[in-house]
Amino acid sequence: MMKKCVIIGSGLGGLACGCILAKNGYEVTVLEQGAQIGGCLQCFRRGDALFETGMHYIGSAEPGQVLYTFLHYLGVDQKIQLSKLNPKGYDVISFKGQHYLMANGKEAFVETLAQQFPQSREELSRYYDLVKQVASSWAMHSLRKDVDLNVNAEYQMRSVNEVIDSLISDPTLREVLAGIVPLYAGEKDHTPFYVHALIADSYDQSASRIVGGSSVVADALADAIRERGGQVLVKRMACQIECDDKQATAVITSDGERYAADLVISAIHPAKTMQMVQSRLIRPAYRQRIIEGRNSTSAFTVYLKFRKDSVPYMDHNFYYYRGDSVWGCEQYDEALWPKFLLYMHFCQEANPVYATTGEILTYMTMDEVRQWEGTHVGRRGESYEAFKQKKAEAAIAALEEEMPGLSEKIEAYYTSTPLTYIDYTGVPEGALYGMMKDVDLLGSAGVTSRTRVPNLLLSGQSITLHGMMGVLAGSMVTCSEVLTMEEIISQLNQA
Question: What is the pLDDT of residues 248-304, one digit of tens each?
Fold first, then answer.
């Protein structure tokens, strides 16, 4: 008889785990509380305009690279069309009036930045090599079992800024190299260097947008599960993980349905999982630590619909810092907001000449919208709408400092706040990337895929890493608890 696996949450972590286990003989059921699958892979439409909500661009997705291997192994690579970003500058960082380009590959990366920092050429080379070394020390990033665990451990315990400062003497270059910090909501002295290294290495290999949006990945994974006899169910809110004295036995949904399980994987926020499990196998101290764990900051996003053929398509991402440092942008007052912007275009079709839509993303704390907490979408009142309009206009005005006249080309705009993130992903405080990775916590208090309930596993962005590559790598780690790491790596290499 096939073993039954019930997965809570249809974000990337849940769908990937479901696909892996369905490939390996499990009868998979994925339960999604909302009407749309995908979590941070979701896209949405306003008329004929399509918008990305979370997975704005991906790295290492070309043949032979890590993410490509994952997608090929899962059987969805042929259903995903990519639009490559500019290899000579896929990210552009604007800092103190200058633009700095991040290029693919060591030679281009070093030489491009060395044009502006000629005295730092050797330091840039050492930084690049360390990023590669740290990334290769992670088995699911290098697809090797013989990784350097000493390097792995060291750079879990050293912060991004500490490591960069130890390598780079020029203070401006230090800031520039840390300029991708919004990709992981990094905090000075807290975020481990391995987070930075894994993300930087992935995009260094290649950087692309997904034509038509990342929801095509969610749909492809769901199809792959169904093709192997599994099911992906929407409007099924899990409310209890039923356990006996030894293990989890079923997942109960809010409508009273009971889904019996030999294996349960929770791919939602770990704090939400702990609230569903009443088993004595979960120690009170562990439960409390997870529930009270610190989350990454949230965001405010302005979704822009451009007038037809008015804005040339931008084949890179634009980071604009308005202050003296790329660090600390999560700490602000109203007069200083926004301290940074990440501006991107959406790739609605292959090889676009003009952009149809774009997005401005910046940090926003939950405290700014706390007064509307507990209200529902579309029913938060005029004061909330006025708040969003004021913030959107401030964000657009800030971007115009770098791109004069852009507002005249905007036909319409829409917004999301931390409350929106809560509504559509269920993540506490609307956290962009789930629970914080912190050098003060990792090792002794990090959240792993295992729990004290032997057949209850965790997956998703709070476990290993966020982003498409990070969550897929974490899903492999989660599934290795029942399939073994050797088997997972063997299957990946065969793919």
Answer: 999 999 999 999 999 999 999 999 999 999 999 999 998 998 988 889 999 999 999
User: Which residues, 6 or more positions from 37, have their beta carbon under 8 angstroms from its beta carbon?
Assistant: 10, 15, 30, 218, 219, 222, 232, 234
Say how many residues make up the chain. Answer: 495
Which of 327, 240, 304 has its CA nearest to residue 31?
Answer: 240
Distances, alpha carbon 450 to alpha carbons 282, 319, 457, 464, 481, in Å = 11, 37, 5, 12, 8
Say what the pTM is: 0.94
State how far the Cα of 327 lies from the Cα of 164, in Å rounded to an integer. Answer: 13
| CB 22, CB 230: distance < 8 Å | yes
Amino acid identity for residue 237 in this structure: M
Cα–Cα distance between 70 and 53 in angstroms, integer? 22
Q: What is the pLDDT of residues 372-422, one digit of tens each?
A: 998 988 889 999 999 999 999 999 999 999 999 999 999 999 999 999 989
Put the strands of the sheet holding 238-243 in their side by side order. Answer: 238-243, 248-253, 258-260
Q: What are phi and psi of 294, to 5 degrees?
A: -80, 135
The greatest distance separating any two alpha carbons of the chain, rounded to the nearest whole angstrom, comes to 67
Q: Could you tell me which residues come within 8 angstroms of residue 105 by beta carbon, excluding any fewer than 6 positions away?
A: 87, 204
